[in-house]
Amino acid sequence: MEVLKPAAAGTLESSDAQVMIEPGDGTISLSLQSSVMNQYGRQIKATILETLSRLDVTSARLTVVDKGALDCTLKARVECAVFRSCGASEENIPWGGAVR
Amino acid sequence: MIPRPRPERFRLRRTMMFMNAQKPGLIKDAYIYGCDSIMLDLEDAVAENQKDAARFSLYHALKTVDYGDTEVIVRINGLDTPHWREDVRVCVAGGADGIRIAKCESAQDVLTVEKATEEAEREFGVEVGRTLLMAALESPKGILNAYEICAASERMFGVAISGGDFRKCMQTTPQRDGVDMLAARGQMLIAARAAGVQCFDTVFTNLDDTEGFEAEVLQNKAMGFDGKSLINPKQIRFVHQVFAPTEKEITQAEKILTAYREQSAAGVGVFTVDGKMIDIAFIPGAERTLKLARACGMWEGDLV
In chain B, which end has fewer C-beta atoms inside a 10 angstrom radius, N or C? Predict the structure, then answer.
């Protein structure tokens, strides 16, 4: 998927994460802040990058502020932000396909 | 991936607790409270501009969180909104046990959702007929059509009244004695029993009014409801207590079933237990009491 416009998803509540995405310059650049960075930083980063790769996003600038979200929440927020950035978040989501 | 067992159409549903599907902090450990069912909400709890985000959150919660024996129902948006079709798709794809149809007013509404559910089951390779349905009656028209709604589909396991919207339509407010909704609750119960489905009461929203809550739960039990919708875990324990059978009822049910087996084997149809006439009409009630007692951890046995 191609990131067409800036979009965001998620909140700064505990157990959630806020994901902001913008069109990139041909690569993925990720800026991550997390309340559990020392313990889980690498795992969080890996989950975000895997989710982007499943969605076939190759060019984007991401800013993620994590408040202790589980992996399933991180995935949900990244996916929602990507679909919103393409104006495709409201219907015909590929549940079980690229979203899984 | 957590494969959930095939949902049971008729199971114990004393308590159904609402949870906002958009709030990760809530839905990740909703099963620990011990309610019989949780109701993940895509409708009123989710703001209009977060409907899409709630579905992503719901999908991954359904696929990732092990809810154990807790039944997982999803309340979808009303049929008059642009959201409900995608809601049905995500429920089926995620493997929710059932879908609650908001603002249901006719058998046609049930059939519309049933059709979309079946299409989604085919799309996502889910066994056709797996996903259960229930209806929320929120308007006078819904109450008047309660029977046709209850009987509209083999997937229907129950019906619930939604007090907030209903009272608004009726130009009334919650009353201490429940008179504001007495006729509607009664009509819905009769319809549900006639159609052979379960019946659930509305939420009690004033968390500070314990006395009012308890009075309403006692009335629910006396009227014959199967259970109640809840908004807070602290409401669960009292409902389970009230809906549990008493020791006396359990003993009586055991006696009735034991005597019935003996007597019917001997060719007798009507007999007495502790001076009360018993015949086959008492058997389903006694069986239900023992099943409920087992679920409440009050009875172990093999009569049912």
Answer: N
Q: Summarize pLDDT for B226-247 with one digit per residue, the tens.
A: 999 999 999 999 999 999 888 8
| Domain range for B270 | 247-295
Q: Work out how many domains chain B is built from and give that number.
A: 2
For the record, the structure tokens of A35 come out as 């309340």
pTM, two decimal places: 0.90
Closest residue to B60, CB basis, from A16, A72, A84: A72
Cα(B131)–Cα(B72) distance, integer angstroms: 11
Instruction: For residues B93 and B112, state if they share a domain.
Output: yes
Q: Closest-CA residue in chain A for B52?
A: A90
| A16/B93 CB distance under 8 A | no
- Rounded (to 5) percent helix, strand, coil in chain B: 50, 15, 35
Domain count, chain A: 1
Q: Is residue B131 domain-shared with residue B207, that is, in the same domain?
A: yes
Across the interface, whether the CB atoms of A95 and B23 are under 8 A apart is answered no
Which of B28, B51, B82 has its CB closest to that of A70? B28
> Looking at CA atoms only, how far is residue B159 from chain A in angstroms?
28
- CB-CB contact of B61 with A74 (8 Å): no
* ipTM over the 0.90 cut-off: yes
Whether A51 is in a domain gets the answer yes
Domain at A30, CATH number: 3.30.230.10
User: How many angstroms separate the CA atoms of B219 and A16, rounded?
Assistant: 40
pLDDT in tens, B245-296: 888 999 999 999 999 999 989 899 899 998 989 999 999 889 989 988 888 8
CB contact under 8 A, A96 and B124: yes
